[in-house]
C-alpha cells in the first residue's frame, strides 16, 4: 500500500496545471479531466470532493475512468483541512421541515410526495428533478393531455374480482406500469436508484435502469431479487465500440448539476450547457441504419424510446423492434413536443390504416410515459392501446422524501387505485379496458385563449354571495 | 328489565377482546363488529358512543343488527364518566358564525346556501358533503357542462300563464326536479333527511330516499304526508336475499366519516378505505342478468341509476326498465367520468338512431343529476329530452344551514326561477321546452388550455384605466 | 289653491290604511298604490319622498297617474320634519373621489368612464347600471363574443378620405351606432336621459328613448334639436288601449331600485321581485298576432327588439317589420342567452338560405346591441351585415361621471376610433366593410375549460426571470 | 460664423408667435413647426431642447428640415439658464436598479432582457417600446399564436452537423431571422439603432433600417461593415417626390412620445393623436396602382410589409414583388388583426390552391414577424413555409439593458437555440424543417372561455396536499 499523502501536499495541487482531488479518502490526479472545461472539478482542486462527487457518480466511476498511475493513494488521516460547512439559515429551516414530514399514512396520492418534496428536498435535487426545457410547456402538457380524455364507464358487469396485472415485453408485471429511467438519484436520497429497485421487487414491477444513474449498473443489478426483471436504458455514445472507458457520467460534469438548476435558482448559461452536453455524450449521429448493428450484438428485445410521430413508430415496427416508448423525455428536450398520450392516438390510428394491425399487440408493444399521476391516467393509455405506462418523477419525489418506504407506499397507492378504478370502469381485467371506454375526441386540441382585455375585466364587479350578518365571526372566508 | 350496568364495568370492556359501548343509555357488546377492522368502534370501547353514532345510523340500527344476547341492558345513571367535551376556539368561532346567519330573505339562489354552509356547518359535515373523488374534476365538470349549453329563447308567444309541473314515472310533480338520494343527513342537521321529506311534501315534489340515510327508512316514510310520493334508492348488498340483517349502515363504519373528510382536513388513507367500502357493502358482482330477479320481486317501476353511456342506456331500455338516471354519483366515484347532461345528449342521439324513439318518452324516462344550481340548468336538460333532474347537495346545504325552512326556501327559489325563465324562454309549459331552444354543439368539448409561458406573461404590463387624481381617496379599487 | 296641509297631519298618515307622501311640496294620498306590495312607498309614508321619487319617475308621473281627488294640495312650509340626512363616512369618501375625477382629456376609451364611475357613482346607481340577471354570464358573454371575431384588414387601398356615416331606418347618422334605451337615468345624474339627447344632437346620432326613463317622454323630446331624430322604445302594457293611465314607472315601484341592487350590496329577494315585475307591467301575453294591431295604429316604421333566433327574425321579416334588434337586453333577462353578435351570424346565414336575401338590407335592417366598447366591435357587426349597433351602459357611465360633456367625449372617442380603424381596415366607407374582412369561424364556441387539478398545479414551481443582483432596489416588480 | 446669441434673448422667444429653441448649442426658429399643433415644441420654447430632441431625431434632422434662414446661429456660452433637472426618488431608485443588473451570463433567453428592461429602462422608453394599440390583444396574440403550433420531431437522423444558415432575398444570413425595423432607438440607449447594426454585423444577419430611427439613415449605414447587408423600411410620405425635405421624424412631433406612453403612465389623448399621426406622415392614399412607380425608381427588390390576408399576398405576387412580410406591425395598429404566423398558414394554403406554388420559394419569399421569443417560434414559421422571421422588441430590450453586448448575447442565445432545436427536431438544415414537423390544426382557434360563475367558483374549496406536521417550519409554501 502506498504511503498516505498529506492533505497539505494535496492542497498545493489546486490549479489547472496540477489538480488533485480527494474522494472517499483517496487522492486522484484529475488534471486531464479539466480539458472539458469543467469548472466544478476545479472548484474542488486540492480538496476533499467526496460530498459533491457522491450523488452524481457511481463509486467506481473515478477508479474505472482514470488510468491507474493517476490513483495517487490514500490521504493521510487528519491532515485534510476540514472544509467548513456552513449551514445556512435556509438549510436549517429545510432540515426542520424534513423532521416535520407527515407519516406515510397521510400521503394519499402521488401528488403528495411532490408537495412534501418541494418543502423538504435539497434545493439542488428539487431544481434538477422538477425542471424541464425552455418554457416547460411540454412538461406540463404531458399531464394536461390526460385531462382531455374522459371515461365512458360501463355498469352492471361482475367486478367482484378484478385483476390489473399484465405482461410487458414478455415479462409479468403486477400493474400496467414500470419505473422510468431517471438520472442522478442520489441527489434526492443517499441510496439513489436502489430505492426503486427494492420497491419494484416488492411490488413485482419492472424498473428501467438509467444510463445516468448515481448508483452503478452493477450495484443496481446486485440489489435486485433473483427473479427480478429490469430493463436497461441505453444512451448511445459516439464511441460505438465503447472501448474508451470514459464513463458517460464523467462527461456529465460538462453539465454540472449546479448548472442545470431551474433558472432563477442557479443563474447560469443553461441553454448552451445543455446543447453541449447532448453533443458531448449522446451520439447525435445515431440513425435508423444503426438499428441492425444493435440487433446484431444482443438477443434481448430492443425498445426504442422517444418516438414522437407515427412515421417513426412505423419505421421501428418495420425494423422489427420489440416496441417503442412514446415519450418526449419528460419535457426535458424539445419544448412544444406533443405528449406521449397524444402521439399514442395518432400511432394507433395510422397503424390500423397503414398496416391493418391493432393494439395492444404482443409483437410490437406501445409504451408511453410523461405526466402520469393517477391510475386513471394509466387506464386511459391502456384503453387507447398501450401495453404499459412509465412513471418517473413521482418515484423520485417518493424516495427523496421517504426512501424505499416512500416508493413502496407510492406503488401501493397505485395498486389500490387500479383496483377501485377497474371496478368503477366496469372492467374485470386489463384486457377489458377498451377504446370505447374513453372519449379521446379533444386530444389534439392545443388551445390558447384570446388575451383578455384587462380594461373590461377589471371593471367587472363580481357577484357576491349572501353574507353573514356583521359580526367579528366573518374572518374565515 | 335488566339491572343497570355500572359505567365502570362498561369501561373495562375497552379492547378487541371485549368491546362494549353505550348508545342512548343502553349497553351493547359489539366485539363481533370489530372484525371489519373498524378503528372507530374501538375508539369508543367502554364509553358512551351516542354522539358519534347518532348522525350516521338510524336509531334502530344497532338494535336490529345485534343479536339480542348482545343487548346488555341499561347503563346505571351517573356512573358513566363524562367524556369531557372540549370546545375548541375554532368551534366557538363557528358557533358565533351560526348565530350570524343572514335571514332567509337574503338567500337569493342555491349558491347562497352553500356559501353560508361553508362558514357555519360542522367541519365534518362540510367535508363529507362537499368532497368528491380523486381530483374532484368530474364533480366540478358536472356543473361546468351546463355552461357549454346556451339558450335560443323565442319571443312573442303568449306566456301570461306558465306551468312548469310535470309527471315523473307516472307521479305528478310541481316542478321537473326531484330530491336526489344523499347519505348521512344528520351530519348537517339533527333532523337529517326528514327536512327533505317535509319540504318535498309542501312543494309537491318527489324525494328519493337514500340507502345510507341517517334516519331510518321507516322514519322517513312516516314523516311523509298520506299522498306523498317517495322513491327509494337501493344499494344492492352482496347477500341478495337480505336475510342477514346487517344493516348496511353498520358496514359503513368501515368507512368512518372522519376518514372520508376532504384530504387536507382529515389526513387518512382515503383511497384504500373507499376501495374497501365499495367491496364491502355494495355488491360488485351485480350484473345485467340480475335485473330479471329484481323485476320478479316487485311490481314497482325500476329505474337504473348511474348509467353513463348510451350502450348501457340501450340495454336498460331493452330490459324494459322504466327509466334510467344518467349520473356519475355527484363526482364521488370515477373521476373523469362525463357529466349526466353530456351523456344525455349522446343517449338521445343514439336512441333515435338505434331504436327510432325520441324523448321525453313515457315508456322509458331519462333522469339526470349532477351540478344543478339554477332552474336554467334544469330547463336545458328538459329541452334535451330529460323528464326531470335530480338535485342533491344544494338541499343538504339548505337544511344544514336553516333546517326544513331552508329546503322550503330553496324550493321556492326554484319555483320562482322556473316561472320567470319559462316566460323568458317563450315556453308556456314544460312540453314547450324543445331541443331547438338550446345550442348544445359544444357539449363534448373537454378543453384544456396550453400551459402558459410564465416568462412572457409576467413581462406583460397590463394596461390601466384612467385614474383619479392623486388624493387620499384612491383606496377603493 | 287649497290650504296648505301641515306636515304634522301628513305624518299621521303613515300606515297601510292611510298613506300620504310629499313630493315636490305637494301632498298625495297613495294608499291605493300599496296593493302592489311596494315596501318602498310605505317607507316614506307620512314623509317627504321627493329625493327618492326624483331619479325614478318623471315629474308628471304622480300627477298623471293619481286621480285628482288624491292630490291633497301643498304642504305647509316649515312644518315638515326634516329627514335628517346622515352622510356616512363611505359617502364622504365617495364625494372626495368625485372631486378627484381626472380631466376628460385623460379618458381615452369607453372603459375609462366605467372605471371612474365605479369609484365615483352613488352605490345605488352603480349597482343598478352594472348588474344583470342570474350569474351575469350573458352580460359578460356579450362583450366576450366580439373577441372571437378577428379582422382580415386589406392594404394599399386609398383611404385618404374615410366616411363612417350611414343611414338607420331611413335616418342619417354620422356613425353606425345609436344610443340604446336604458332605464332610470337620474340615478346617475340629475339631468338623466337629457344628457344623451343633447350629446346625440351634437354628434348627429340617434337616441332611443326608453320607456322607463327618469325624465318624461315630453322632456326628452323637448330637449331635442328641431331636426333631431329619436326612436322610442315601447314596452307593451297589458292594457293595450292604454286608457288606464298607470304609468309604467309607478308599477316599477314593485321593483324598488333598492331591490335590484347587485346581490351582496343590497340583500333582498331579487329573483321574485323581477319575476313579478315582468308579470306586472310588461304584457307577457304579447304575441305575433298582435303585430298587425301595432301596424294599424302608426305609420312609423316598427322595429322589434329582443330577437334571439333566426326563426323569430324570419317571422319579423315575413310580417313586414322594418327591422329587428338582435339583443338579449344587456344580459338582464335570460342568463345563457346568446349575444346579439352571435345571433347576427345565424340570422344572416339563414336569411340567405331561406329567403335568398343578403345584408345590410334597406327593406329589413338588422340592429345589434350588447357588450360594445370599441369602434372595432361595431365594425365587426357591420362587416357581418348589421346596419348599426346600439350602445347603452357606456353612455350611462359617461354622464354619471361627467354629465353631457362625458357623453360628448365618449362619442368623440368613437368618431376618432372609426376614422382610424376604417383606415387600418382598408375601407373608405361603411359599405366597404364586408364579410371577408372578419374571421367569424369561432363565434359559436362557448367553451369551458376542464376543471384544473389543483394538486398538480400548486406543485408546479413557475420559472423565473433573470433577477437583479441583491440590492435594496428590487422592490418594483 | 454668426455672433453667439445670448440665452436671455432666446428665452424671450417662448410663444406661439415666436418660438426659438436651442439644440446642440445652436439656436433655431421653429415657429413654423407649431402649426402642427405640437405642444411638445412649445414646452421648450426659449429653452435648450437638446435632451428631449436627442432620442427622437437624427442629428441632422433639424438642419435638413429647417430653411437656412431659421438657423439663427450658436448660443452664447454660459448664458442659457440651466434647466434644473430634478432627479425624482423614483428615478434614483431606477438608477440603482440599473447598477444591479445581473451579468449577461445570467441572461438565459430573450424574455430575460425584457424582465430586466422593465425594471431598469427609463419609463418613457419602456412605455413606448412595450405598448400597442387599443386593448393590446393583437400584440399578445402574436406570441400566443405560436403556442397553438406543436412539433412533430423526427428521430434517428444523423444530426452530428447541423446548419441553420439561410438566404433571405438573395442575401446570406447565419440564421433564418432578421432584425425588424423599430422606431426611436435612442429612447432606450444613447447609441440607438447602431447597437443593432454592430451586433448584426458580428452575427452575419440582416438589419432592417427603420424610417423612424433615432439615428440618421447615414449614421446607420456608416456603422455597417463593408459587406454588411441592410434592408430599408420605407414609410411612404404623401409627397411622393420627396422634394419637400420635411423629415418624417419632425412630423412625429405630432405624436409626442410622451403621449404614446402606455395609458395609465402618461394620461393623454392617445387615440386621437395616433389617428392624426397616421394621417399626417404616412400617406393613406397609397394604393396597389402605385407599386409600378416604386418599381420604376429602383432596381432593388421590393418587399411589401404588413400583408394580412391571402388576397393581398396574391396581389403582391401577381405584381411581381420579391416578397412580403406578414405582419400586423407588432400589434401597434388594428387590434384584433390576426398574427403573422396565422396568416402564413392561410397564404400558403391559398397559393397552392390558386397558383399551384409552394413555399419556401425564391421567386416570392414569405417573411413573418410578431411575438417571437424562441428559436422554436422561428422554426415553426420555417416549417410552414416562411423564409425568415423578423424580431423587433426583444432586441430593443437587449440594447436598452446592455447596449451592443446585449444584442450580441441575444443573437448568441438564438444561435445556440437553433443548434439544439434543429438536433431535437431531427433536421440537419433549414431545408429539412418541413410542414410535417408541425401540427398547425388549431391555428385558427381564437377562443374565449365562457365567463365563470363566481358564485359557484368561490364556493368550491380546493383540495389540499399532505401537509407538514405543525411546526414553525411551514412558512415556505
UniProtKB/TrEMBL annotation, chains A, B, C, D:
Its cofactor is FMN. One of its GO terms (biological process) is lactate metabolic process. It comes from Multifurca ochricompacta. Residues 2-76 form the Cytochrome b5 heme-binding domain. Residues 102-443 form the FMN hydroxy acid dehydrogenase domain. This is Uncharacterized protein. InterPro entries: Aldolase_TIM (IPR013785), Cyt_B5-like_heme/steroid-bd (IPR001199), Cyt_B5-like_heme/steroid_sf (IPR036400), FMN-dep_DH (IPR000262), FMN_HAD (IPR037396), FMN_hydac_DH_AS (IPR008259), L-MDH/L-LDH_FMN-bd (IPR037458). Keywords: Oxidoreductase. SMART domains: Cyt-b5. GO terms for molecular function: L-lactate dehydrogenase (cytochrome) activity.
